[in-house]
Design brief:
Blueprint: H1 2-22, E1 28-33, E2 36-40, E3 45-50, E4 57-58, E5 63-67, H2 70-89, H3 94-126, H4 132-171, H5 174-189, E6 192-194, E7 199-204, E8 211-212, E9 217-222, E10 226-234, E11 246-252, E12 258-268, E13 273-274, H6 282-285, E14 288-297, E15 307-312
Antiparallel strand pairs: 1-10, 1-15, 2-9, 3-5, 3-8, 4-7, 5-6, 7-9, 10-14, 11-12, 11-15, 12-14, 13-14
Helix pairs in contact: 2-5, 3-4
């Protein structure tokens, strides 16, 4: 009997403490989380540099890794060499046109001489000092040279047209090749892995010297300056909270009291869900709640996964 009394009195403080500690003045509770970003390489290849470690504070825009892009640089040099050879394929129409123009000049000299002869024989025929046949022969030669000059002029035009068409066909290859160079330049730039957000490295999944694939995670980073408390409220509480509302957030300081923070409601779910518990009774599964997110400025004490309580301000 004494043993039972001893057990009863020994258990009484525990029960009282549990009752006092069980008084929950909070409106909701949840855990802190952060906006985590998984950073991957955009190119496959060997990791030449990887200069960060878990726990490092990394600013946005810093180059944290470099992927081997030697193959891409060789492809770029090959395309640039192809562009360089295009000029060698271009035909210079100048010498051919010059030859035809020289021929045209000779024909013009012949035409001038025949024209003088034609005028002279015309006068001689009028004076009956020459026959009509002689004049006809000179006229025929004159007309023939005129036709030859016309043919030569057409040859000049045709030569320029054909050569121009051929050259345009060759030079038309420059545009797609230049775009290929630009594409390779873009890929080479992506060999440098640039940190997208300022924050703390939470996990590192690769090391220098390893072979990575495009899209394979290299590290995980999150901004810890502001953490987000994800809590759950009942349907009855839904009317008491709104976006951008200032609320009180409390976390256990490990010494039997709480640290209090100012928070701001940034998201309220528009759909109800079952109470998120690992182990649920049938009654608990019937309870529907709404998720809310509250941003809290971190003073360095708050950690991802830490439990927090939420109190709506009056």
């Amino acid at each position: 009997m004494k043993i039972n009394r001893l057990f009863l009195f020994a258990g009484l403080p525990v029960i009282l403490f549990a009752c006092n500690n069980g008084r929950d003045n909070s409106d909701a509770s949840g855990v802190f989380e952060a906006e985590e970003v998984i950073v991957s390489s955009e190119l496959p290849g060997k990791i030449l540099e990887f200069s960060i470690n878990e726990g490092d504070q990394v600013p946005m825009g810093k180059m944290v890794a470099m992927i081997d892009a030697t193959n891409l640089r060789l492809q770029k040099e090959q395309v640039e060499a192809s562009i360089g050879t295009l000029q060698e394929k271009v035909v210079d129409v100048g010498p051919q046109v010059k030859l035809l123009e020289d021929q045209l000049s000779v024909q013009q000299t012949q035409l001038d001489a025949l024209l003088r002869e034609k005028v002279r024989f015309t006068n001689l025929v009028k004076e009956q000092a020459a026959t009509q046949k002689q004049l006809d022969d000179i006229t025929s030669q004159y007309d023939q040279v005129v036709k030859q000059m016309e043919v030569t002029r057409r040859q000049v035009t045709v030569q320029k047209t054909l050569t121009g068409t051929q050259n345009r066909s060759v030079l038309s290859e420059r545009s797609p090749l230049s775009k290929r160079v630009a594409q390779l330049d873009d890929q080479i730039q992506r060999a440098a892995v640039i940190n997208p957000v300022a924050g703390t490295v939470l996990a590192k999944y690769a090391q220098s010297g390893e072979i990575t694939a495009a899209g394979k995670a290299l590290y995980k980073i999150a901004g810890l300056d502001t953490l987000r408390l994800r809590a759950y409220i009942t349907g009855n509480q839904l009317a008491a909270i709104k976006l951008n509302q200032q609320v009180k957030v409390s976390v256990d300081d490990g010494k039997g009291s709480f640290r209090n923070y100012e928070g701001r409601v940034t998201w309220i779910s528009d759909k109800a869900e079952f109470t998120p518990k690992t182990i649920q009774t049938k009654e608990e599964r019937a309870n529907l709640v709404y998720a809310v997110k509250v941003d809290v400025k971190n003073d360095g004490y708050l950690k991802i996964g830490m439990y927090g309580e939420l109190k709506f301000k009056p």
